[in-house]
Amino acid sequence: MRRSALELGVPVLLVAVTALIAGALSQAHQLEFENALVTTAIVVALYVFVGNSGVISFGHVSFVAVGAYLAGVLTVDPQTKAFTMPGLFHVLGHSHIGTIPSLALAAAAGGVYALAVGLPLMRLSGLPAGIATFAVLGITYNVLYYWQKIGPTAQTLSDIPESGRWTIAAGTAIAVVVAYAYQRSRFGRMLRATREDPAAARASGISVYRQRLLGFTLSGALAGLAGGLYVHELGLITPDLFYLDLTFITLAMLVFGGVGSLFGAVIGGLAISALNSFLGDAENTVHVGFRLTLPGGTRLVTIGALMALVIILRPSGLTGGREFGWRQR
Amino acid sequence: MNWGQGIADAISLGALYGLVAVGIGLVFGVMRLINFAYGELITAGAYVLAFTSGWPAPLAIVMCFAAVIALALAQERIAFRPLRRQGASPAAMLVATFAVSFLLQAVYLLAFGTRGDIVGTLGGLNSPFTIDGVDIRWITLVSTVTGAVLLLATGALLNRTTIGLHVRASAQDFRTARTLGVRADRVIGLSFVVAGVLAAAVSVLYTVSNPLVQPDMGVPITIFALVGVVVGGLDRLWSAALGGFAVGFVYGLFGDLLSSQQAVYLPSVVYGAVIVVLLLRPAGLFAPFRARQVERV
Description:
The structure holds two protein chains of two kinds. By secondary structure, chain A is an all-alpha fold. Chain A has helices at 2-23, 27-53, 60-75, 78-84, 90-94, 99-121, 126-146, 165-184, 186-196, 198-203, 208-234, 244-257, 262-282, 298-313; strands spanning 286-287, 291-292. Chain A has 14 helices and two strands; from the N terminus they run αααααααααααααββα. Chain A has a two-stranded antiparallel sheet with strand order 1-2. Chain B has eleven helices and four strands; from the N terminus they run ααααβββααααβααα. A two-stranded antiparallel sheet of chain B has the order 1-4. A two-stranded antiparallel ribbon of chain B has the order 2-3. In chain B, helix 2 packs antiparallel against helix 3 (57-86). The mean pLDDT of chain B is 83. At the A-B interface, helix 7, helix 11, helix 12 and helix 14 of A face helix 3, helix 4, helix 9 and helix 11 of B.
């Protein structure tokens, strides 16, 4: 009981603390902290599938995108929509719902899309699975960029109502809690069994396909939720936000923190985001006991170098795949 | 006439992607590692060409080759050797090569800015000659011929030399090969050198038609080639090369022939085809029929 409390409590606590700190800062910093929370939610969603199944997926940002666009389009005022996106489907163009229902719908959309994609794809493993999920990302990006009936295509979708930091923190915390509940459940355990030894798992009566599909769908739903949070945090989105950069940064954060653990996902997301913000500020001069000004562009190089270094020297990540509170063997 | 031009361009694009596919497939064969940072080798070569634009062409090309091969060996020594020693999980190795790619792009951005630089070397090859009323640019011919020659040379290296035998043995079973006296580091080093040579060749040829060099120009190349390698079949070099060629060819052909209106959903169609191929033949389109099947559940 106590171990569960630590394993779940610490990640959630980190989320809450981030939201608290965000409140004490200026407007610009607040946005960075909220961004950190949303990114962490995406990493957690990714972890639910990649961490538990050991199969890499490059396509999760598609589910984030679908959730984001659905939540965004549905919460924009219909009069604005008639003007900026006249080609929308009738249902999309005339609906106007609140933020919380939009988040729920975003999660549902992500889950449905993941289920549809997973039905054929979950039979694949290893590199073919990676490439196939990458193809899904490519298709989603292409369609969002050009199909006028579902969104503003290449233009920015804006005028989306923004949420406060506690809504975003709550959403992230929900993602963490769901991820934890799943990994402690029978299904999570079965999926992890397939990761460790597929043959033995199958011999024990576990259907690898079914468990992967379940994990994939759940992780897609969480990704959709994260997408909804994203769109309500930023207030505007474009398809370019949901393509290669986000895919790779979230994967790298996950591996950096530790692929096999929820705590790793949270730590990876928050730590890299924090470092990113700090370095971004340092490029504009910051006081750390002395005045520090970094030349422009060093932020990306530093982040890249740090991630590369950690992943190369310690491929199991910062946490080594262990949850918080586990003792080192 | 559009067809002839389209096909000629598609073939030359296919040849380039075939080269990249071989570069990626070679390293994969020996190390079981997909090098996401391969495109960054091409970008490095392109930048060297951009900065030596005024120099005589042969000298610029030599500089390009030297720089790219040096970078390839550096990648091996600094990033991939520790990974190999650690026995990391495939997911971690994949992401590690991505991290290296990200880092190199950030370095290029810091060093050269987003403005982009122009390559002038060999620009003359853009001029066309005419066959049967079809205008074919010299570069198309040069790319195709160079591509074919390099592929054959790589094949000869692997099949007819002792060190090539060592490479093939390592690709088949690394541990046993080492037990039999094959020097692992030498074999891997050679693979990276060859991969570097191919990447340098690609950067020379590619920048003739696409002279603008930007920090992230290598990313789409890597992606297309990677898709081609997996679709063609990872396990054999020639199937990887064919896969890369196929992707380049199809993309070039349809990109040229379709009007911009129709071509809008072309990527989705290509990606959709990739998914179908992977579902039906996960070992690759061109893999031998009784190939060791990829694990399916």
